[in-house]
Design goal:
- The protein is an all-beta fold.
- It has a single domain, classed as Lipocalin (Beta Barrel).
- The chain is 0% helix and 39% strand.
- It is built from no helices and eleven strands.
- It has strands spanning 16-20, 27-32, 49-51, 54-58, 63-68, 74-79, 83-85, 91-93, 103-105, 108-113, 125-130.
- Strands 3-4-5-6 form a four-stranded antiparallel beta sheet, with no helix packed on it.
- β9 (103-105) and β10 (108-113) form a beta hairpin.
- The protein is globular.
Length: 135
C-alpha cells in the first residue's frame, strides 16, 4: 500500500485523459480536460472506449470527445447537453455523461447522455452517431 501525503500541494487535481505505456506503467501521453464554466464538470467520469486509433471519452460537462491514440489530440468533440426531438416525436435532453462507456457497433457510436445523480446534468437520450465521409 502506498501512503499519500494529502498536504502535498503538488497533488493538485489534473482531470483529463491519460495513456499508459503497458511495458513500464509510465504515462505515454496526457490530454488535459478542456476548460469548463463548472470545475466539477471538468472530468471524464464515464468509462472510456478505445477502438483502433481513437479513445472516446464522455465527460460530466456533456461532451463526448474522440482523442487520437497516438498523441491524445482531440479530433472530434460533440456537446450532447442540449434538447433533441426524438425519433418518436417527444422532446429529449442530453446532459452529463457518466457511468457506462460509449459503445461502437456496426460502424456506429452510441452514447447515453444524461446523468442526474450527485447534482450532475440530468437527461434522457441515447445518441447514435455514424461516420460521414468528407468531400
Amino acid at each position: 500500500m502506498i501512503a499519500i501525503d494529502r498536504s502535498d500541494s503538488s497533488l493538485k487535481p489534473s482531470p483529463g485523459v491519460y495513456a499508459l505505456d503497458l511495458s513500464d506503467g509510465k504515462i505515454a501521453w496526457s490530454a488535459p480536460h478542456p476548460a469548463s464554466k463548472n470545475a466539477v464538470a471538468q472530468c471524464n467520469s464515464a468509462a472510456p472506449l478505445v477502438i483502433p486509433g481513437i479513445v472516446f471519452a464522455g465527460s460530466l460537462d456533456g461532451h463526448i470527445r474522440a482523442y487520437a491514440t497516438e498523441d491524445g489530440k482531440i479530433i472530434w468533440d460533440y456537446d450532447t447537453a442540449k434538447e433533441y426531438e426524438t425519433t418518436d416525436g417527444f422532446k429529449g435532453k442530453g446532459g452529463a455523461i457518466d457511468g457506462p462507456s460509449p459503445v461502437v457497433a456496426d460502424g456506429m457510436l452510441f452514447v447515453n447522455s444524461g446523468y442526474g445523480m450527485f447534482g450532475q446534468m440530468a437527461g434522457n437520450v441515447l445518441l447514435a452517431f455514424t461516420v460521414s465521409e468528407k468531400k
